[in-house]
Write a structure and sequence with these properties.
With 332 residues, the chain is α/β, with parallel strands linked by helices. 35% of the residues lie in helices and 13% in strands. It has nine helices and ten strands. The protein has helices at 51-61, 84-90, 104-112, 169-186, 191-215, 232-237, 256-269, 283-292, 314-329; strands spanning 7-10, 28-29, 44-48, 65-69, 95-98, 117-120, 223-226, 241-246, 273-276, 295-298. The strands form two sheets. The protein has a five-stranded parallel beta sheet with strand order 1-8-7-9-10, sandwiched between helices. A five-stranded mixed beta sheet has the order 2-4-3-5-6, sandwiched between helices. Helix 6 links the parallel strand 7 (223-226) and strand 8 (241-246). Helix 1 (51-61) crosses helix 4 (169-186). The radius of gyration is 20 Å and the shape is globular.
């Protein structure tokens, strides 16, 4: 099938949802299980901005690193506000791994910190969608630069480009290679292990990429509907079209015009499912699905792992995403 561009249509928000920055507290260790304070270990200490960065650090660093995350499990990363304690702890770490453009307060805090090794994942791959997608303009003539703000007023863009690159396994692999090289340079005593771990991780990501290509090759439709425009890179990689309902408060009711529009799209493009995600309300997705006679399912943007996630790590959740897409798209 031909590669298609990512389309985005907006539903007017009924009201903005207040952002609560409470309960951030101190940095907590990631799934590595370490609870040591940042900078107080005999390991290579890494502060990661949110889950996809922490996962890379853990996989590449192995036993040689102590990884902590600025974003707590269940916290929507776009909403993160850095605490004074977290800012101070940044001064004690050996390295900071982040994705510039996704979390403005993280960008500012790391930029102003004295961390010796600052690794910006946005510089390790292209934030533009994969070649062959054409322009990012939908069929209503609106530029889709994915630089929209969400209902909290936060930008999801990096210079107008899509920061959700970890959902494309091939681009995530490119980032992994860059992180591995940065670790080798910053902690040369363990460079051999970092190199070996990076190669293993990249191999697994390449296998996942191949699995997505094969699993989605024979499908009945290219179009899928999500509540959050996070899957542009994934869509571009595998020739899909994302219909994203974004820029609205979770409590907002979809307009009658949008429901009618979505119903028409569903009929024309064979859409069967409205996807929602684990870290935000599913109310809008279920409302639209009910009114349009569609199913609902989870398509996880992997911005954090919680007990609601369909898997315990990046690979398990991506496998779940593939199965969900196969069902929704009628893939054989």
């Amino acid at each position: 099938m031909g590669v298609m561009n990512v389309r985005r249509r907006l539903i007017p928000a009924a009201a903005a949802t207040a952002v609560t920055a409470a309960a951030l507290g101190a940095l907590s260790a990631c799934s590595s299980g370490s609870s040591a304070a940042v900078g107080n270990t005999d390991k290579f200490d890494v502060v990661a901005s949110f889950y996809p960065m922490a996962f890379l650090a853990e996989q590449i660093g192995g036993d040689h690193v102590n990884v902590t995350s600025l974003t707590q499990p269940g916290q929507e990363p776009h909403d993160l506000e850095i605490s004074a304690k977290q800012t101070a702890q940044l001064e004690e770490t050996d390295a900071a791994l982040y994705l510039k453009g996704l979390q403005p307060t993280v960008d500012e805090a790391i930029g102003q910190s004295g961390v010796r090794t600052k690794i910006d994942a946005a510089t390790l791959t292209s934030l533009d969608h994969a070649p062959g997608t054409g322009g990012h303009e939908d069929d209503h003539g609106h530029d889709d630069e994915h630089g929209h703000g969400d209902e909290h007023g936060h930008s999801h863009s990096h210079d107008g480009r899509d920061p959700h690159v970890w959902l494309d396994p091939a681009k995530y692999a490119e980032i992994a290679e860059g992180v591995g090289k940065a670790f080798q340079k910053a902690d040369p005593d363990h460079a051999t292990d970092y190199k070996k771990n990076t190669e293993a991780l990249v191999g697994k990501l390449n296998d996942l990429d191949a699995e997505f290509k094969t699993g989605l090759e024979h499908r009945k439709t290219d179009v899928f509907v999500t509540t959050h425009a996070a899957f542009g890179h994934l869509a571009a990689r595998y020739g899909l079209t994302e219909e994203a309902i974004n820029g609205l408060a979770p409590e907002a009711e979809p307009s009658a015009a949008r429901v009618k529009q979505l119903t028409e799209t569903a009929k024309a493009d064979g859409v069967t499912t409205v996807f929602y995600e684990t870290l935000i309300s599913d109310r809008t997705a279920k409302t639209i699905a009910r009114d349009a006679g569609l199913r609902t399912d989870v398509l996880d943007p992997l911005e954090g792992i919680t007990d609601k996630s369909r898997g315990d790590d990046y690979f398990q959740v991506m496998e779940s995403n593939l199965r969900a897409l196969q069902t929704a798209l009628g893939a054989e």
